[in-house]
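ok new one. same drill as before - structure tokens go in, u give me an amino acid for every spot. 281 of them this time. try not to just spam alanines like last time pls lmao
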């Protein structure tokens, strides 16, 4: 990993049963091994069940909340119990915090939106913010709608239909879509890890959001495939229900205002180049 190459020692907080020596916690069971994080300098907490892998039943929504809000509460409570606490907690959040906002330009100072995802992100951020009560700097990383990586996230799921020439825009295609390269997701987190002046929410996405139609065309260009089809909004809603409106058809024209003010230099700001790099990596 990038931090290991810089000489940092990493402690991987693995899940499991208490009888497994390598398991340090199990958020579903509600336990953390006593003193598991004693003396560590920083905690990076990115765990959470996949938002878009399944239709949102009430059971699925409960799992999404438990894996984010309840797990973060458990982690922060553990941090508070330590005698030698970390100096910083960097915790995941998401651009879904803003809800469906059309063409409105969204920065970290923008008020939250409505809907399940926004409510989830707000509760998630509130739990991680509690670390400040224990003297720990707390940063919430509002990650883009898609982190461009070949082996994770949405990109691998999109490859087959696009390679078959079946890729197309979702609904009208006019909804704004945020993205970030994996290099910049990691680079931004590293920057926030070392900058002791930063607390609170930070948008992590490329500076120039695109519409879904623009992203679709760029992906097609990268794969040298046509993108003439459209997936109608009604079909997405029929297939995915609430998930379609909140995760696929909603519009977030968000920009990384704080990261830019902090002087972070993006490695990838061109979508075509970022897609090519991700798919060749």
């Amino acid at each position: 990993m990038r931090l290991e190459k810089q000489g940092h020692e990493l402690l991987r907080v693995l899940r499991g049963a208490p009888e497994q020596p390598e398991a340090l916690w199990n958020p579903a069971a509600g336990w953390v091994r006593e003193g598991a994080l004693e003396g560590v300098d920083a905690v990076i907490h990115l765990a959470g069940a996949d938002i878009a892998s399944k239709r949102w039943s009430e059971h699925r929504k409960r799992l999404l909340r438990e894996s984010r809000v309840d797990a973060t509460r458990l982690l922060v409570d553990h941090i508070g119990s330590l005698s030698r606490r970390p100096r910083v907690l960097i915790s995941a959040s998401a651009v879904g915090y803003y809800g469906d906002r059309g063409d409105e330009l969204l920065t970290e100072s923008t008020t939250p939106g409505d809907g399940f995802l926004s409510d989830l992100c707000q509760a998630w951020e509130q739990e991680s913010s509690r670390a400040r009560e224990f003297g720990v700097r707390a940063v919430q990383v509002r990650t883009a709608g898609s982190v461009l990586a070949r082996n994770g996230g949405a990109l691998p799921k999109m490859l087959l239909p696009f390679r078959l020439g079946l890729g197309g825009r979702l609904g009208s295609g006019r909804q704004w879509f945020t993205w970030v390269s994996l290099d910049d997701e990691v680079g931004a987190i590293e920057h926030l890890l070392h900058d002791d002046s930063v607390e609170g929410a930070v948008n992590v996405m490329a500076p120039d959001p695109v519409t879904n139609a623009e992203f679709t065309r760029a992906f097609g260009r990268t794969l040298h495939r046509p993108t003439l089809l459209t997936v109608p909004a009604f079909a997405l809603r029929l297939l995915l229900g609430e998930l379609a409106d909140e995760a696929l058809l909603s519009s977030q024209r968000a920009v990384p205002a704080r990261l830019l003010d902090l002087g972070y230099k993006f490695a990838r700001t061109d979508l075509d180049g970022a897609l090519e790099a991700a798919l060749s990596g």
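Residues 55 and 239 are 8 Å apart (CA to CA). and btw The chain is about 40% helix and 20% strand.
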